[in-house]
Design goal:
Shape: globular
Number of helices: 5
Largest sheet: 5 strands, mixed
CATH topology: Ribosomal Protein S5, domain 2
Distance between the termini: 41 Å
Helix content: 25-40%
């Protein structure tokens, strides 16, 4: 039973808000040995060619630990932008820009989920109005068809599929997902259910952060 619990457990999480002085909101989020720092700037004046008359222009920039972003990083960037745009009340800030800069610090597994959670925390610290919070959880299916929540890179070497889901804080609906590898429909549904259950831990962390920083945000 203990081994089964270990397989369904998210690695220890830590977070600090307002870690960058020149941004409107920022957060450093660690999950196990995976760490991401995110900064939020805005709403600010936007360049004429990017003006949206009915809502803010939301952009996400993903920066890898070293070197230039690759195609894989651009995929992360697209999912992060879509997720953040969906969660924000962008219509409150027409003709402005909201920029979210995500910096990878260390990747020991679950990097995309860690980046989403870091971005949500940074948006919380910025004070920009949101429809809901988002929490991301990753999992893998091993060659032996065993499901493991929040795997490390070492564990991922034995995977035949990896899945990342993003959930909202209102009804736990799926906001976004990213999958690689091969899996059955039943395995997908099981992964979705267990990741949704595991997201409770992340939303609980968010509540703790609000209590801790309420007077400072």
């Amino acid at each position: 039973m203990e081994a089964e619990n270990e397989e369904q457990r998210i690695r220890p999480m830590n977070c600090e808000l307002k870690v960058l002085s020149r941004s409107d909101g920022s957060a450093i989020f660690t999950q196990g040995d995976t760490a991401v720092v995110t900064a939020v700037f805005g709403p600010v004046e936007v360049k004429p060619q990017r003006i949206l008359i009915d809502k803010a222009c939301v952009e996400a920039l993903y920066r890898p630990k070293s070197g230039l972003p690759c195609v894989h990083d651009r995929m992360h960037e697209s999912l992060l932008r879509n997720t953040c745009e969906t969660s924000l009340l962008a219509t409150l800030h027409p003709r402005t820009s909201i920029s979210i800069i995500i910096q990878e610090m260390q990747d020991s597994g679950g990097l995309l989920a860690c980046a989403v959670n870091s971005a949500c925390l940074a948006l919380m610290s910025s004070g920009i109005a949101m429809k809901f919070l988002v929490a991301a959880v990753s999992c893998m299916i091993s060659q032996e068809d065993k499901l493991l929540i929040d795997p490390t890179n070492k564990q991922l070497k034995d995977s035949k599929a990896s899945l990342t889901f993003v959930f909202d804080s209102v009804k736990k609906n799926t906001v976004a997902s990213h999958t690689t590898g091969s899996f059955t429909q039943i395995q997908y549904q099981e992964s979705l259910m267990k990741c949704r259950n595991a997201s409770d831990n992340i939303f609980s962390l968010y509540r703790d952060m609000v209590k801790k920083y309420a007077s400072r945000i």
